[in-house]
Amino acid sequence: MGILEVKGVGKRFGGLQALGDVNLSIKENSVHAIIGPNGAGKSTLLNCLVGKLIPDTGSVMFDGQSVLGRSPHEICQMGISRVFQTPEIFGDLTVMENVLIACFAKRDGSFELNAITSVRSQSDMRDMAETILRDVNMLDKHAMHAASLSRGDKRRLEMAMCLVQQPRMLLLDEPTAGMARADTNNTIDLLKEIRDTRDITIAIIEHDMHVVFSLADRITVLAQGTPLVEDSPENIKGHPKVREAYLGE
Ligand code: ADP
Ligand code: MG
């Protein structure tokens, strides 16, 4: 049994079957990558796992409990945190304030801006936020406005916002999209550190094969809303069906 068990998940948008019949089992404390061409349904699948979308069919179980029908906040409290494809940070607020808001959101269930005034006074949260910012190497930038960060640092901040929620599982949708190579390599190092130093299961959607092969223990290839194959990175590299359907050979 995996910590996350997806069975028979389907999702339709009007006439489009975005997910057909997805079965996926993710082992606790592993890094599981989901790859596949644009439009394969990767983000849709992730959204179904975090309560942003409700699948039409199937079940999603996290640590033996159903995720379906729960609000994103309840799912967060179950121990799942996520980074979406487009960064979701508050540009007008400082790095520290963003992390505090994420902390607050897990406890009280909202990402409201006015929460920040009450949050400022909570020293336990501030201590935790400081620790996480130090862990992701951003403490020196704590007072900067989030909008002024580089793309790589925005991703790093989002990662801090997830980690401060002390998740058991981290879901990442293309964390290195649009990054320069140096930032990508920093992100790989950060994720390796998270993998090696915390009891966190990571599911990562990623188009950059260098990232995938640097991190993943298992890889699922999704094509047209259905898993084509799941295997170790070594086997995926040489898989004829994958080369044909995904690598375009
Ligand atoms: P991927 O992340 O693998 O690139 P997506 O999950 O974003 O793919 O999309 C899968 C398919 O579903 C695409 O054809 C996309 O256009 C469609 N789709 C995704 N979200 C919606 C939506 N909210 N409404 C309608 N169609 C959508
Ligand atoms: Mg996507």
Automatic annotation (TrEMBL):
Signal peptide region: none
Annotated InterPro entries: AAA+_ATPase (IPR003593), ABC_AA/LPS_Transport (IPR051120), ABC_transporter-like_ATP-bd (IPR003439), P-loop_NTPase (IPR027417)
Keywords of this entry: ATP-binding, Hydrolase, Nucleotide-binding, Transport
Domain ABC transporter, first and last residues per copy: 4-249
Top-rank EC class of the record's enzyme: hydrolase
Entry protein name: ABC transporter related
Keyword Transport attributed: yes
GO biological process: D-alanine transmembrane transport; L-alanine transport; L-isoleucine import across plasma membrane; L-valine import across plasma membrane
Organism (species): Dinoroseobacter shibae (strain DSM 16493 / NCIMB 14021 / DFL 12)
Gene Ontology CC: plasma membrane
Organism domain of life: Bacteria
One GO MF term: L-valine transmembrane transporter activity
Family matches, as CDD domains: ABC_Mj1267_LivG_branched
Pfam families found in the cross-reference section: ABC_tran
Transmembrane parts of this sequence: none
EC number: 3.6.3.-
